[in-house]
Amino acid sequence: MFLADIYEPARGRMLQARELADALLAAGRRPDGARSRDTKRLRAVARSLGLPVSGRQPPDLMEEVAGILLADLGAGVKRLRAIDRAPAPLRRRWKAAGVLPAGVEVELSRTERLLAQEEVWENGPRSRARVLFEQGLRTALADAWGSSTVATAASDILFGTPRPANVTHGLSALKRYSVNVVVSSANPLLTQLLRLAAREPEAATYARAHGARAVSVSTLACPELEAGRRHLAVLGDPSALPEALAGGMVDLALVDGRYVASLTGKSRDQHTELVIAARTGAAHDLDSARRIVRRAIENYPNRDRKRARAPRTGGTLMAGFSDESLRLLAGSRFGTSLAALNERITSGQITGLAVLLDCGEGSDPAQTAGIVRDLVARDILVLAFGCLARGGGDEGYLTGATFDHAGPGLAAALESAGLPPVLHAGGTADISRALSIVTEMVAAGGLGDDIADLPALTVLPAYCATHLGLIVALVVSGLDVMVAEGGRFAPPSVALAALTREWPDLFGSRALFLDGPAEVAEQAAETISRRRVLELDRFGAWAAAESILPRGQRAERA
User: Fold this and answer.
1) Domains along the chain with CATH numbers
2) 498 Cβ contact list (under 8 Å, min separation 6)
3) Best mean pLDDT range from 164-178, 202-216, 236-250, 489-503
């Protein structure tokens, strides 16, 4: 069960990553010349892969970068290239534990054989359970450091690195005088192509010819590649789709096959056209997205204007943060690294970093909000991933209102830069951003030599089986993970004790599965305090002097 829960989501993320990398390769080979929406990011990825970038044109770089990314996903790679980004002490830990991952497809194939019980078990101390356990760790690492890294890099190059912006959330995203296209698909590429197709001048002209003012694309977070961070309106989690259809404002809904049976009746009562999204891994291009947008526009005149209603639920939230945003931390004199964040931690203004991972299944938005507010009140910066759109917007912790609950040190460190205490950095498939940030914090110096030394941890409001692989990857990478509602792993779980007993010794980190959220923030603060290994560095004297200034003067000086 442990291995199967890791395998299924990992395979889905690998297919998504492969599709994005294939799209990047096709863009680089286009005869009319490729267009990267973020050439700075393209060059940064190329340099990280060891490619020369001076004097080279984007199409050349895109094709070569895509080739390397696809190789990491392939079956012919004996060692995953992406793990070279990890700190050297962590790589040594992985090697000593025997969990260094090969290519993503290699690890998935090995896992498939084990699940099919086709593997010949070794005699001696390596029991069957041990083989299954170690393969689960390798698969989880290949997923988080391989598939997620490839998908994030390819989507940033193709569609642009996310930038912070206010994003509409809730059913109020449906516009009365616009063609409304709603996407609830696990296919990340198709969602982004629809966004591009809807914003083309031809689409606007065609919409006006059919009586509409524009074309609006909104999504259901977060399977569609955390679309909110790319400034698409977010209706909420998938449970909001039936209510959206009932209002008669949706002209076309692009949905996965698993939703069709439950939505067909509701769609028949309205004019909405249901389109089944192709399974992840199928080819998509901009022409396909244009055809879908045209079908939605042509269906707009069939909307019953008298019965259609535009719900007013929702509002705005702030999304689109990345590691680039943290480099602009208030008071930073080192804009090319995360040294400013480390500086604020060594000074005591920021206690540490909490990665919040929430899939929206089984978690209560109000409960999650309570956890977030308790964390920021302790001056802990929160980096959020997952389906937080509905809860984060309704409960106010993805807006500037979070400052009302933040501790004085955290507020002073962030307010002059315009960064809120909670930074929504993408969906769970984008977890490589969190790994990049903690890796860069180690490289910036002052907080230790390994991720296990950082005052950082991961918090999950509730256990979700699809997140087991991410939990494992984060712990094995050196981050403590705390699950407020532990599900089947809640104490006193024999399986939990058997699976995690050796983690603190092997990787310097642990997984805590709790019975409820009451003690999460207190436990998190205690864990961060235990992990604080602060070294005297060149920023220490300046940071200490800065930290004793009154809050207003600190912001003014920054």
Assistant:
1) 2-159 (1.20.1270.30), 165-302 (3.40.50.2030), 320-557 (3.40.50.2030)
2) 129
3) 202-216
